[in-house]
Automatic annotation (TrEMBL):
<dbReference type="Pfam" id="PF00668">
    <property type="entry name" value="Condensation"/>
</dbReference>
<dbReference type="Pfam" id="PF00501">
    <property type="entry name" value="AMP-binding"/>
</dbReference>
<keyword id="KW-0597">Phosphoprotein</keyword>
<dbReference type="InterPro" id="IPR020845">
    <property type="entry name" value="AMP-binding_CS"/>
</dbReference>
<dbReference type="Pfam" id="PF13193">
    <property type="entry name" value="AMP-binding_C"/>
</dbReference>
<dbReference type="InterPro" id="IPR013120">
    <property type="entry name" value="FAR_NAD-bd"/>
</dbReference>
<dbReference type="GO" id="GO:0008610">
    <property type="term" value="P:lipid biosynthetic process"/>
</dbReference>
<dbReference type="GO" id="GO:0031177">
    <property type="term" value="F:phosphopantetheine binding"/>
</dbReference>
<dbReference type="InterPro" id="IPR000873">
    <property type="entry name" value="AMP-dep_synth/lig_dom"/>
</dbReference>
<dbReference type="Pfam" id="PF00550">
    <property type="entry name" value="PP-binding"/>
</dbReference>
<dbReference type="InterPro" id="IPR001242">
    <property type="entry name" value="Condensation_dom"/>
</dbReference>
<dbReference type="InterPro" id="IPR036736">
    <property type="entry name" value="ACP-like_sf"/>
</dbReference>
<feature type="domain" description="Carrier">
    <location>
        <begin position="988"/>
        <end position="1063"/>
    </location>
</feature>
<dbReference type="GO" id="GO:0009239">
    <property type="term" value="P:enterobactin biosynthetic process"/>
</dbReference>
<protein>
    <submittedName>
        <fullName>Putative non-ribosomal peptide synthetase</fullName>
    </submittedName>
</protein>
<dbReference type="InterPro" id="IPR010071">
    <property type="entry name" value="AA_adenyl_dom"/>
</dbReference>
<dbReference type="InterPro" id="IPR010080">
    <property type="entry name" value="Thioester_reductase-like_dom"/>
</dbReference>
Length: 1484
């Protein structure tokens, strides 16, 4: 196999092992590279695509002599042997070769002076992409950009193998000095030859064998122990594999501050560079909320004599560790900085890679090891005078950086600035600029009072303070004190006969609800209920529960909702603490208690209207009286009761007016249980507005299909739930609910992917993301979700609701600036009274509000971390303590730990929330048993379940001998192992169906494998995951399983048996009826909005287009279509490309064409990038962009599609079906454009069509109903017919297998034939089968499409682009042999079984779903059948259309096949024949 590897395929350990092996082995071979060169050389082998060069630009104003400048350049290169060095591989090891003379050109390039910045940006990006030939050299490039007669820019680019950043500046200065000397100026003559790299390499190797090196290794091993990554808050989620795309932000240090900094350093004997480093470190600490971390500091090779004049990759980077104290002042931090740097410099000779080896940090491909931010101090000149010329240093655009942020303090001719190169995958420019500004702000304050704790110094600018005040200006006019039940009574009085509550089994009018509540209130008052008394309510999911809640409120008492499923001990413990004497509930729920909860008076909720008027004593209720108490998880191990007054819940309810723009809550579905405070939000809002509350049953909440039916049956207008629950609903019910206008999600983090799913399915439905703890009365902030949130890393929790303030504060209760994490505090009208009978806990969580002018105002400390975005919306970042939210339930981890510690066999425990599968958090308990004892998982589950609700029971238990500890002696939660689930007593799935169900289990549970008999719930399953499971089974296996079926048989084998039974029952149904049903469903999707029609639109230029759009332009065919349009027409080709921006789109387009050997620089002026997405409305374009494209375009070549035969139809539908509709919409906007739709031969293959495949319209009654990708293309083609019949000019192009270019062999390596070929070659075998290979060259395909599209007589026709002279698989194997491969061809079934056994990282693994179903053969591709078919019957229309054009399809030949193989081998996709090892005797 090829020796090249993608860096993403190697773990950190593997990379370290490769590097260490290379370095160790090199000691015994002739290797003349320095250690840094060898490290870089290996990294280049691992990742050739990364830019490995540094560029610098100098503007030359005056008359520049280009010939003299080139001579100065050559002289400098000649002086430094390293700049004449090239690198090649000998016996697997790098060898440096020094050329006697390096020929270096200085081309002059004309540049528009008015577009200098744009041109520099373009050239910098081009230089980043353009690679050096390491073996040929030179590894220095130079060019002279000509802006005018006396205005030029010298651009130098040097490979890192021969010069680091410092050396490039040194080399540039030497070139300019040489130029001055050659012109007889003041420049000094260049010095003699510099030190030879080989001498440096030999000195390094000798040093590494000595004691000093070993001492350095020990130092760095100790210094990096326990060092954690610097977790700066980012604007986007950190990609799982590190990226390097970058930009630059700069701020100038004001002259006054610069003078003060310099005065401070001169007065204290400090260095300016270290003062700036200390300031940056302090701000990094504040931003990341970390005190211990490392900053990378580049250092010159001071150990080498004359190092200051040496060019080469000589700088080392040291991870300088900082351990800051809470009360750190500038004075102490400067002392700490000096000590840390001085100590590090004493051990600076050990190369960074060997420091990493000594530290052996945890594997993390998402960031650089040991440090993530680099700080450097650079002294530069801003301008210098040369003979006849003034040189000005230019700052080039930055396009890449190896770290999160590279921060440079730059002093130029006395001016000082901070310049940050930042990773654009992580940060926005504004974020980094604010970091730089805050560094200067902190330093400004700190040098005034250097002994003051830095944490006392604000990072807020005056502008920041103004913004924070504006964002919290939420005060609105109050309507006066109100009581909760009075809000409901007013609506009941105005709409007595309207339904107040409804469910699948019952409905209550407002009048009945009020009357029954009055009757209950009278009974409760007689039992002593009144203001400040607490009444327990068994709150099941029924309309009667609302009667109970209102009945309690009318007495002046406060209700305490209790789940009837709670353990009896929990109910008793809550009743005892709250002083509950009366328990209200449904008669059945009360009876189910039996002898539990003894001593409580039990009152049944009335289920019928009273016979007559009800009288009860008058009671005086104040807004300050309690309305209800909600019990939540508590850190002491006991639940805590949150006491909510009428004042707070009426505030919360009245504030909901801000959600009413999409419509009033007419029929509100409340998914939260009544025991969860979130239920109160929609409940009282709806009843206040006279709407109807829709109450689902427990079964409907658990089963998304039943819930969807309830929504449709009740015409629900508002859906309220947690994101995970709503996600399952969308997965199960792909069609939108016509009645729903608003969706409110709260209780857990809202993933951006769910926003996208919501907007795709229900674009007209308003979506709100709410946030708020129980202690702030249901909600405190809300965010109206937008389309942009689907693209963001986090969906904000929005802004404060009316009369509420949200403060983000540091540990000293000072406001933090935008972008910086702070703990979230809530003030205003929703802050509750406190915790029942917990004065200490109340005092610790409810603090005096220093930001309020209201006497006695308090604010609640949430324990949540958040930060402000630049627009004032708030991002939730996680918990600051041990509280988590799982499936919307707030859980105090210490409560579960305390429960576990009560078990007599548990000595230590730690409970954490893990997210081993993204989006699926679960509780995992780690337990250390008492010495000499064993504790079982079953015993622990039983123990925990008896004391807490089921949602608080960990889904996995891991037994450990001891807890991993941090250096400080605390439990190291990061080192706790992932639970190994479903492995014990492992039983392999016995059938193909069981194997597929096991894969579904694994996907949902986040485990690598699962036994056929393992219990879904013991593996971590829960009711929400059951809902996901049934939804996925329904899609994948076309089966409808009741949710309760999973509860009955929660194993792979059990579910498989249930599916088989379902299939047996359905097999009894008449197959014709089933076919008719499926056909009806298929035809129901052949729709095209009525507005997509020609009307009387003017025609664009169809046959001499000025502007052509190609969708899928970075795809294989799309790229060659774009080229063909450039060659055959005068059109400007617009390329629709998925990308972040136009620059990235250009990079993708150019990279695609270069990959296929099809790029020409002249194409740049003939192309325009259109950043969009087929799968999104308007092709992902904004309204203005879409309108502009509609006005400009003449023709559309629609070749874009999701092509993946393993994807379900739902994955392909957005791009392939809906995207086609959007293309047709574009074609009929402003002007009428022609559309040339690229279909596929799979519209025949995927429907069981019989040969010959003619060029007629597709049969409306396919033999087999298509699925997956073929279904999407079949539907798209039928939709194009609708467009054609309405008068839109179209052609349909159906290519067969598109492959190599006739001249270059350039092939699409993801074609399934090549995937199979590569995968089976890797296994050392090839399957014996002989299907027809009907291959058409990509250039012929593009030529045929463009030629036929430009002739009016072809409109309305279908063209099969096929090869009249195809070949077979057997012939292909012969050509593989003649190319040089030894082949071991084995029985097809044996080969298939081997392929099914590959690991997940094998190239064949994605194909296993196809390989499982049956043979790799296809009946339509049988060679015997091919002999019976006249090839012209399948492409007659195309042949006639191409007659006289000179365009024809060449036969498949050995020469062409070899060209394709050669392209794939040279590109590293196929192994070279000599790298394929076939066992001796196996070749056949």
């Amino acid at each position: 196999m090829s020796g090249q590897h993608e860096i993403s395929s190697l773990t950190s350990e593997e990379k370290r092992a490769l590097l260490a092996g290379l370095l160790d082995a090199s000691a015994n071979v002739t290797s003349n590279l320095t250690l840094e060169q060898r490290r870089l050389w290996l990294l280049i082998q691992l990742d050739e695509k990364r830019p490995w060069q540094t560029s610098v630009a100098v503007r030359l104003t005056g008359r520049t002599d280009a010939a003299v400048l080139q001579q100065a350049l050559s002289t400098a290169v000649q002086r430094h042997e390293v700049l004449r060095t090239t690198f090649r591989t000998v016996d697997g090891h790098p060898l440096a070769t020094v050329r006697p003379v390096a020929s270096l050109r200085l081309p002059v390039v004309q540049v528009d002076p008015d577009r200098l910045d744009a041109e520099l940006a373009r050239i910098a990006a081009s230089e980043t992409r353009r690679r050096f030939d390491l073996a040929q050299g030179p590894l220095v490039r130079a060019s002279l950009l000509r802006l005018g007669e006396e205005d030029h820019v010298l651009l130098l680019t040097v490979h890192q193998l021969v010069a680091d950043r410092r050396s490039v500046r040194l080399f540039t200065d030497e070139v300019l000095t040489g130029y001055a000397h050659l012109l007889g100026g003041s420049g000094e003559e260049a010095a003699g030859p510099a030190a030879e790299p080989q001498a440096l390499a030999a000195a390094q190797r000798a040093w590494l064998t000595g004691d000093d090196a070993e001492k350095d290794i020990e130092y760095w091993r100790d210094r990096t122990a326990g060092l954690n990554a610097l977790e700066l808050p980012t604007d986007r989620p950190r990609p799982p594999v590190k990226t390097i795309d970058a930009d630059v932000a700069s701020v100038a240090v004001p002259r006054e501050l610069r003078d003060r900094l310099e005065a401070f350093t001169s007065g204290t004997g400090r260095r300016l560079s270290r003062l700036l480093l200390a300031g940056c470190t302090a701000v990094l600490s504040r931003h990341a909320e970390q005190r211990t971390f490392a900053v990378g500091v580049p250092v010159p090779p001071s150990w080498q004599e004359g190092a200051e004049g040496l060019v080469g990759p000589l700088e080392n980077t040291l991870p300088v560790r900082f351990d800051l104290d809470a009360g750190e002042s500038l004075s102490t931090l400067l002392g700490r900085t000096d000590s840390a740097l001085d100590e590090a410099l004493e051990h600076a000779r050990l190369p960074f890679e060997q420091i990493v080896e000594a530290a052996h940090p945890p594997r993390d491909l998402s960031r650089t090891p040991l440090f993530q931010v680099l700080f450097g101090f650079e002294e530069e000149w801003s301008s210098r005078e040369l003979p006849g010329v003034t040189a000005h240093r230019l700052d080039l655009p930055v396009t890449w950086t190896p770290h999160d942020i590279d921060l440079y303090a730059v002093r130029r001719d006395g001016e000082l600035s901070l310049r940050a190169h930042f990773n654009t995958s992580l940060f926005d420019r504004a974020t980094v600029e604010q970091f730089l500004d805050r560094t200067l702000l902190l330093l400004d304050s700190a040098v005034t009072d250097p002994d003051r704790p830095l944490s006392d110094l604000s990072l807020l600018s005056d502008k920041d303070r103004e913004r924070l005040e504006a964002w919290n200006a939420t005060a609105t006019g109050r309507t006066g004190p109100r009581l909760l039940h009075e809000l409901v009574a007013e609506a009941a009085a105005s709409r007595p006969d309207a339904p107040a509550l409804t469910s699948s089994t019952a409905e209550l009018s407002y009048a009945s609800m009020e009357a029954r509540a009055e009757a209950l209130a009278a009974r409760l008052a007689g039992l002593g209920a009144g203001p400040e008394s607490l009444v327990g309510v068994l709150a099941d999911r029924s309309v009667h529960t609302m009667v109970a809640l209102l009945g309690v409120l009318k007495t002046g008492g406060a209700y305490v909702p209790l789940d009837p499923s709670y353990p009896a001990d929990r109910i008793a413990s809550i009743a005892e603490e709250a002083g509950i004497r009366v328990l209200v509930g449904d008669q059945g729920a009360l009876d189910a208690l039996g002898g539990k909860a003894a001593g409580l008076e039990r009152v049944a909720v009335p289920t019928a209207d009273p016979d007559g008027p009800v009288t009860r004593p008058a009671v005086e209720i104040e807004p300050d009286n309690l309305a209800y108490v909600i019990y939540t998880s508590g850190s002491t191990g006991r639940p805590k009761g949150v006491a909510v007054e009428h004042r707070q819940i009426t505030h919360s309810t009245l504030a909901r007016s801000i959600l009413e723009e999409p419509g009033l809550p007419e029929r509100y579905l409340v998914l939260a249980p009544f025991t969860f405070d979130a239920s109160g939000g929609g409940l009282y809002w709806t009843l206040m507005r006279g709407g109807t509350v829709v109450v689902p049953s427990e079964a409907e909440v658990l089963d998304p299909r039943l819930l969807a039916a309830l929504i449709r049956d009740k015409d629900v207008t508002h859906v309220d739930g947690v994101p995970s629950q709503y996600s399952v609903l969308l997965e199960t019910e792909p069609e939108p609910f016509p009645s729903v206008r608003t969706t409110v999600l709260a209780g857990e983090v809202l993933p951006p992917s769910l926003v996208e799913a919501h907007r795709r399915r229900s674009p007209g439905v308003a979506l709100f993301n709410e946030y708020g703890p129980t202690e702030a009365t249901v909600w405190a902030s809300v965010h109206p979700v937008t389309a942009e949130d689907a693209e963001s890393g986090r969906v904000p929790i929005g802004r404060p609701i009316p009369n509420t303030r949200v403060h983000l504060l540091d540990k000293r209760l000072n406001p933090v600036p935008p972008g910086v994490p702070g703990e979230l505090y809530i003030g205003g009208g929703g802050v509750v009274r406190g915790y029942v009978k917990r004065p200490g806990m109340t005092g610790g969580s409810f603090l005096p509000d220093p930001f309020s002018e209201e006497p006695g105002a308090r604010m609640y400390r949430t324990g949540d971390l958040a930060r402000y975005r630049q627009d004032g919306s708030i991002e939730f970042l996680g918990r600051a303590d041990t509280q988590v939210k799982i499936r919307g339930f707030r859980i105090e981890l210490t409560e579960i730990e305390n429960v576990l510690l009560r078990h007599p066999l548990v000595a230590e425990t730690s409970v954490i929330a893990r997210e081993d599968q993204p989006g699926v958090p679960r509780l995992v308990a780690y337990v250390v048993p008492v010495v000499g004892r064993v504790v079982t998982k079953e015993a622990l589950i039983k123990h925990v379940l008896a004391q807490v609700p089921d949602y608080m029971v960990p889904s996995a238990f891991v037994t450990l001998e001891r807890m991993p500890l941090t250096p400080n002696g605390k439990i190291d939660t990061a080192a706790l192992p992932a639970p190994d689930l479903g492995i014990e007593d492992f039983v392999e799935p016995g059938t193909q169906l069981e194997a597929e169900i096991a894969e579904t289990f694994c996907s949902l549970l986040g485990v690598s494998k699962v036994s056929a008999v393992a219990d879904f719930f013991e593996l971590g399953g829960n009711s929400l995951l059951v809902a996901r499971l049934t939804a996925q089974l329904s899609r994948t296996h076309d089966v409808t399983l009741p949710v309760e079926q999973i509860f009955r048989v929660p194993t792979v084998a059990g579910v498989a048996a249930a599916i088989e039974e379902d299939r047996r029952q359905r097999d009894n149904v008449d197959s014709e009826v089933l076919y008719a049903q499926q056909l009806e469903e298929l035809h129901a999707e052949i729709t095209l909005p009525e507005e997509i029609a020609p009307g009387d639109l003017p025609h664009s230029e169809w046959f001499a287009p000025r502007h052509a759009l190609v969708t899928g332009a970075t795809g294989y065919l799309g790229a060659f279509l774009a080229v063909e349009l450039i060659l055959r027409t005068d059109a400007l080709v617009h390329c629709l490309v998925r990308a972040e921006n136009e620059e990235e789109a250009w990079e993708r387009m150019e990279a695609t064409l270069r990959k296929y050997h099809a790029w020409d620089e002249s194409y740049r002026s003939r192309m325009r990038m259109v950043v969009g997405d087929l799968a999104r409305p308007r092709l992902g374009l904004g309204e203005e962009e879409f309108a502009a494209a509609a006005a400009e375009l003449d023709v559309i070549y629609h070749s874009g599609a999701v092509v993946n035969f393993t994807y379900p139809y739902e994955a392909a539908r957005p791009a392939n079906v809906e995207g086609t509709k959007e293309v047709l919409r574009l074609a009929t906007t402003t002007t009428l454009k022609s559309v040339h739709f690229v279909s596929s031969v799979d519209v025949f293959m995927g429907t069981g069509a019989e040969r010959p495949f003619t060029e007629e319209d597709l049969d409306s009654r396919p033999i087999r109903i298509p699925t997956g990708y073929p279904r999407s293309k079949w539907l798209a083609e039928r939709i194009v017919y609708l467009a054609r019949d309405r008068g839109i000019p179209v052609t349909v192009q159906r290519p067969w297998m598109i492959t190599g270019h006739t001249q270059t062999g350039a092939s699409h390596h993801t074609d399934y034939l090549y995937v199979y070929l590569r995968g089976f070659l890797d296994l050392g075998v090839l399957p014996l089968y002989n299907d027809v290979i009907n291959a058409v060259p990509v250039d012929f395909t593009a030529q045929a499409i463009v030629y036929t599209s430009l002739r009016e007589e072809n409109f309305g026709k279908n063209f099969n682009i096929t090869n009249p002279a195809p070949t077979t698989m057997t012939q292909c194997y012969q050509w593989l042999r003649s190319f040089g491969y030894d082949l071991n061809v084995i029985d097809e079934e044996e080969a298939r079984q081997r392929a099914l056994g590959v690991d997940e990282d094998h190239v064949l693994f994605p194909m296993t779903p196809l390989l499982r179903v049956a043979s790799m053969r296809h009946a339509a591709l049988d060679p015997e059948l091919q002999k019976q078919i006249d090839p012209q019957d399948e492409c007659r229309v195309l042949t006639e259309a191409l007659e006289g054009s000179g365009i024809s399809c060449p036969p498949v030949t050995e020469e062409w096949a070899h060209a394709c193989f050669r392209f794939l081998v040279d590109g590293g996709y196929l192994p070279a024949p000599e790298d394929v090892v076939v066992p001796q005797g196996s070749v056949n």
